[in-house]
Amino acid sequence: MSTTNPPNESPPRSFPADFLWGTATASYQIEGAVDVDGRGPSIWDTYSHQPGAVWNGDTGDIACDHYHRMDQDLDLMKELGVGSYRFSVAWPRVQPDGKGPANQAGLDFYRRLVDGLLKREIEPTLTLYHWDLPQPIEDEGGWCARDSVERFGEYVDIVARALGDSVERWITLNEPWCSAWLGYGAGRHAPGVKDIGKAVAATHHLLLAHGTALPILRSAIPDAKVGITLNLGVSRPGTTHELDLAAARRADGNLNRIFLDPVFKGHYPEDMLDHYKANLPGFSVVQDGDMDVIAQPLDFLGVNYYFPGTIMDSTRVKEARAAGYGVPIGEQFPDLRVLSLETPGTDTTSMGWEVDASGLTELLVRVKNDYTELPIYITENGAAFDDYVDPNGHVLDHDRVSYLEEHISAVHDAIKADVNVQGYFVWSLLDNFEWSYGYSRRFGIVWVDFPTGTRLPKASFSWYANTIRNNALTYSTSGGD
Ligand code: IFM
What we know:
Layout: E1 13-14, E2 20-24, H1 27-30, H2 43-48, H3 66-80, E3 84-88, H4 91-94, H5 104-119, E4 123-129, H6 135-139, H7 147-163, E5 169-174, H8 176-185, H9 196-220, E6 225-231, E7 235-237, H10 242-265, H11 270-279, H12 290-294, E8 300-304, E9 309-313, H13 317-322, E10 338-341, H14 358-370, E11 376-381, H15 398-416, E12 421-427, E13 446-449, E14 454-457, H16 459-470, E15 472-473
Parallel strand pairs: 2-3, 2-12, 3-4, 4-5, 5-6, 6-8, 7-9, 8-11, 11-12
Antiparallel strand pairs: 1-15, 9-10, 13-14
Helix pairs in contact: 3-5, 7-9, 8-9, 14-15, 15-16
The structure holds 5-hydroxymethyl-3,4-dihydroxypiperidine.
């Protein structure tokens, strides 16, 4: 643990004067009020109500009830001292049928949110799509159907016109890999489809939707700063055997390169085109001109990072065990033929994710070297642990403080290595609906008592507030500058 504050043990790791500190949430994970003020159903309403889909049968019906407790949450952010709050707009609040005219009551909610932020001198960072696709769009094929792209454009136009006078920083999509590959490939997220071909089609249509949104945003809001948020990782080969090197490359292709290459280079990576062509229609949904739409200039890249991956070829289970790795049973994407290994002795979060902040620095340096020198915001980073309220009424989440300290330090290392990182957003402000894990995983720096909705800032909240106030990591046992 790194937080028993030994003053002056190491020099403070200061951040640039204009570094943006923030925190993030997403609509379905916190808002609740799923049938209030004209909101329509989303794929997550449908999915979470299917028996067995989400842990404990949890749903986002009430979640953190942020819809009704917004002012309290805004006050918490003010107390935290963040410069920006990253939230997402629920498309089904704005267009309950996924098309047609705006639902004014839905837009009014986000207007109140944005005004409440600005009143507290907190910059809004608005994500247009964080996975709550209107169910009527899914009924017509969802992201596997090209029509969803046009639908998205109409929705973006409505939101841009409604909030463009007050929001400067816009994110088109959050983690399209999860929408496409967990939603349509692994079936572990809404809409719960298991079909690799559909995941490939969804990947392309999501990227096309991103590209389609760009001129719409730029024409409605000439000063907008627009980016996309990708969940990126490092994919480390478990051995130097050629099969493992190739497997790590495939994993990297699936997670990182099929998103980064189109956005920054205007084409899909050849090896992944070949891979998906081998057994599937692959990227045959790509039409002339699509790649130019996808590769239009951006103002920043949002990076979400949580954990690194250690990868070997799936035929090498015996060798993986002999090398000392834990080998999970079952492959998420059998076509990829990769083993995602566990390294015994490494700390993990309650998601089972390995804690290794060096992966974040490595990733950021790679993005700069291979893709872009645009400003980067870490739009999500954080950890779930088994928090509890102690008999004194405190949540002493030292594991989370340690995780955040190490990862913010890794961002500092990247800045020293000349990566243009301009901000960092903790995931998440509140404990919330963690998708298929329901409420069983707590990522918040504020504890939420779900039966009552009561909020209780954790120790990590004070620690982060202190970091923001100092604009520096002022102490650590993991080494200084
Ligand atoms: O809770 C999610 C978030 O919605 C997207 N990024 C990862 C987080 C933790 O799993």
